[in-house]
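ping. complex inputs:
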Amino acid sequence: MQKNSITNLVIICLGLVFLLAAFSKIGDLGSFSNVVEKMVYLPTFFKGLLILLLPGLELTLGLCLLTRFALNESVYLAAGLLAIFLLDSIYMNATNHHVDCGCFKSAVPLLKLEGWWIAVRNLGLFVMSMFCVWSLRTNQAK
Amino acid sequence: MPISFSIRKLIGIGLASITLGFVSFISQEQITFKDIFSQKAVLSSSKVVDFDYVPLPQIIQIFYSPDSIFLDVRDEKYYNYGHIQNALNLPMSELESKLPSLLKSLQASPNIVIYCNGPSCGVPIIIAKRLVKENVPFNHIKIYIQGWPEWRSCHLPMTVSDAFQHDLTKENASPGI
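pong. complex structure:
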């Protein structure tokens, strides 16, 4: 019971984080496109797709997590997305391209970080999502 | 036991994402559909924080690297008074007349450093955005925000006028704006 409460709380937190990230990108797509432009390893076409689709995906996942609609699918997709963000932040820091993901902006100062702290933040979010995956799997096994 | 997925729900999430992505995109006016698949997206941003703001140690490295270009965006009289060695002068007032002749070398340079008279001067951002519009790669542009005052105070390689040297010998150098 306690584990379920924690899982629910983590799911709500992740949902809010995704909504916040989506709204900050939608609110200033120009700045987000600047950030994407710095992802030197991505071809221009994929950068365009990212600018176009990522805010929508984050918004959908945020809403799904908060309303618990398609929960299994949303949690797995969220975990996958956060894994990609984590790898991106590690790569960008390791190659000296200190770039924030463009999320949050100044909306939540605590989440607006620089350098390796971005990777730490993404690691924290990824761990949260993996906890949800593990929790949903064990619940289903029962 | 593997978690159960519904393909229909996954497709639903995908379609909802694409729809919301497009709706949010067409409801904003910052960038156009054509722009996002080119580097021109950066132009429409109202924010200026995302250009590379490069500190002095890195600027010095760039200074000694081949093919780097330094752009001094102060007015000509301040540029003539003293500037970073080999820097080109591209003030706002002469942007339209000078830019075409510089464009080819700017597009080919891997490092373009734009500087002005310190953090209070916003001209480098305007020039940087203009360069991106002219297809200068976004990633090649660096903003040296501390600019001329810091460079001069560190006695790094400069090209200076007689007036500057005169002022220096009198230990009465002007602010160098």
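Residues 39 and 92 of chain A are 8 Å apart (CA to CA).
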